[in-house]
Write a sequence for this structure.
């Protein structure tokens, strides 16, 4: 079964270093999956393309078509690579707005590779104090290594001891291991009676009231 | 005039009772004005040949409709034919005993011209105001409706549940008109358990079909139809489906767009969001000529199957009374007569008509005389003597009641 990897980039410019980082990570992840003989596909999704849709979703409660397609791909993916610029000490507002508009259950149990970009390495911990709790709250499963790229990582001033590629490769291995050792994601359609009745009848709900609101 | 001989489809209005500033004049109607206007609107709907007037229930400004049965009973007294309904009645925060009593009263006063739609409500604070927790919305809807359903069908009810004080030997009065409970719709925009609930009881299901793309509601209605059959009430196409809708009309589509745009842009539900063009493309809102509205709504059955009730939201977003009445005239004169003709075509014979009290009475009694409950003399309690009504067996046999 082909494993699906959704790559979400919240970069705002074009080209953006956030997208560049996303591309480098997905390339490494795909290579690691190939080594493990895991059939795979990946799709890179740019939030800038649906920025207006995201705002409209927040205002109207439904996702316009382009955003709905992205969200459906993410919800059905076996893994997510989430890459955001760090603005004012945290993930970008667009990135958070997208997650706010995403179905609350969409990422439950999904392994996530966290990655971020910023001007300097002083923001690198934002992955762990801002992104990680967010995904934990959504019951996603972020892998332990996050990948942070500062502007300097793209030039001669890059970290020579633990270079960006080495950090990417480590995260890619972790994600690939997780995927190789897991079964493909099977999501029950919420409109399938199996999903909310668990094989029973509505009469069962009358005697054993559901716990969800 | 519209052809009212065909009972298959019921067309009407649904109001949320918002009191919204008119963005063109800058004026906000008073509560007193808006309440007078809603009566005018409902009466006008009947005169225009519409079949249903429904009003919502809210417990916070800028809405006025906290007590739908009061409003509907007043309208019932001033109309002859139109069915009075709700959009919606809060099954979560109301005591089901009070719903049973109030809507049975309304049903008597309206001569059977009333039904109601259950909803959970979407305003968070309403729950704590009535001592409830929004996180319990679904269990409340399930338990409360189970009790309501029994209160209208059993003369004496013993009940013990999670949310309400227990009942022992309780009789909800008055008994429903002709001992036939009001028809119930269950409304939901996203919860499959509510579609399941409607299917389980063989009640109607209503999709508000206003704010989101129609494909979203298609899944819930598809589920409801499938489960209606699963619970043995008939084929999927025999399930009772209602839809909301939204339109603004003028003789030319450009006039409609120009007239409605300021109201659209300032409307609380979609203002400052998508453009009116995008929103009308994505959702069933139609702004244009009556023919455009006919085309859009005649096609709804292609998505949802043949259905029984179509309600339009017309009095909202600060539209002044005069414009609302004009919109009702467009519906009554230009749109509904054509939709009746169109939707009658190719409608399978087993698709039921829109629900009415008369049809429910016939279904229950055939040619027999409907039950008319008459209480026994007051014994001071309901507990020791069996039924409190003369035509039912008491604990000591029928003779004991005489």
């Amino acid at each position: 079964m082909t494993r699906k990897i959704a790559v979400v980039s919240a970069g705002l410019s074009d080209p953006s270093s956030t997208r560049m980082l996303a591309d480098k990570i997905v390339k490494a992840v795909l290579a690691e999956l190939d080594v493990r003989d895991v059939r795979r596909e990946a799709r890179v999704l740019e939030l800038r393309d649906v920025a207006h849709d995201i705002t409209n979703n927040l205002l109207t409660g439904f996702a316009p078509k382009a955003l709905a397609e992205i969200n459906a791909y993410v919800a059905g993916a076996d893994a997510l690579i989430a890459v955001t610029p760090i603005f004012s000490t945290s993930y970008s507002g667009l990135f958070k707005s997208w997650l706010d508009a995403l179905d609350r259950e969409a990422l439950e149990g999904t392994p996530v590779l966290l990655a971020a970009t910023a001007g300097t390495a002083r923001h690198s911990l934002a992955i762990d104090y801002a992104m990680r709790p967010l995904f934990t709250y959504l019951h996603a499963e972020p892998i332990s290594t996050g990948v942070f790229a500062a502007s300097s990582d793209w030039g001669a001033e890059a970290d020579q001891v633990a270079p960006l590629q080495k950090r990417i490769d480590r995260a890619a291995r972790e994600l690939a291991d997780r995927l190789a050792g897991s079964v493909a994601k099977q999501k029950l359609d919420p409109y399938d009676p199996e999903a909310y009745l668990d094989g029973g009848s509505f009469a069962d709900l009358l005697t054993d009231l559901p716990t969800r609101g | 005039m519209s052809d009212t001989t065909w009972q298959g489809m019921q067309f009407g209005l649904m109001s949320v009772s918002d009191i919204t500033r008119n963005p063109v004049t800058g004026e906000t109607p008073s509560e007193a004005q808006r309440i007078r206007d809603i009566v005018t609107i409902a009466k006008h709907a009947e005169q225009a040949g519409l079949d249903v007037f429904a009003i919502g229930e809210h417990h916070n400004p800028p809405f006025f409709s906290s007590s739908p049965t009061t409003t509907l009973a007043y309208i019932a007294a001033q109309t002859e034919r139109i069915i009075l309904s709700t959009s919606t009645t809060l099954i979560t925060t109301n005591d089901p005993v009070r719903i049973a009593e109030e809507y049975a009263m309304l049903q008597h006063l309206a001569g059977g011209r009333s039904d109601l739609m259950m909803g959970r409500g979407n305003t968070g604070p309403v729950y704590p105001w009535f001592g409830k927790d929004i996180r319990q919305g679904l269990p409340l809807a399930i338990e409360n409706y189970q009790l309501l359903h029994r209160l209208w069908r059993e003369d004496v009810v013993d009940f013990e549940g999670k949310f309400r004080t227990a009942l022992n030997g309780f009789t909800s009065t008055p008994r429903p008109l002709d001992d036939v409970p009001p028809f119930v719709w269950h409304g939901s925009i996203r919860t499959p358990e509510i579609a399941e609930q409607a299917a389980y009881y063989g009640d109607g299901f209503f999709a508000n079909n206003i704010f989101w793309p129609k494909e979203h509601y298609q899944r819930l209605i598809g589920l409801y139809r499938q489960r209606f059959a699963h619970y043995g009430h008939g084929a999927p196409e025999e399930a009772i489906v209602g839809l909301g809708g939204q339109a603004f009309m003028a003789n030319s589509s450009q006039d409609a767009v120009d007239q409605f745009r300021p109201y659209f842009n300032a409307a609380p539900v979609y203002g400052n969001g998508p453009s009116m063009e995008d929103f009308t493309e994505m959702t069933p809102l139609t702004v244009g000529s009556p023919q455009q509205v006919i085309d859009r709504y005649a096609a709804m059955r292609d998505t949802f199957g043949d259905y029984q009730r179509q309600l339009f939201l017309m009095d909202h977003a600060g539209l002044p009374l005069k414009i609302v009445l004009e919109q009702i005239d467009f519906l009554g004169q230009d749109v509904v007569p054509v939709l009746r003709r169109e939707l009658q075509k190719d409608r399978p014979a087993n698709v039921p008509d829109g629900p009415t009290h008369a049809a429910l009475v016939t279904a229950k009694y055939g040619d027999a005389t409907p039950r008319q409950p008459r209480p026994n003399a007051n014994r001071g309690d309901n507990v020791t003597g069996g039924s409190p009504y003369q035509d039912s067996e008491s604990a000591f046999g029928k003779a004991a009641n005489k």
Chain B touches chain A through 36 residues (CB under 8 Å). The longest strand of chain B covers residues 10-15. The longest helix of chain B spans residues 321-344. Chain B is about 40% helix and 10% strand.
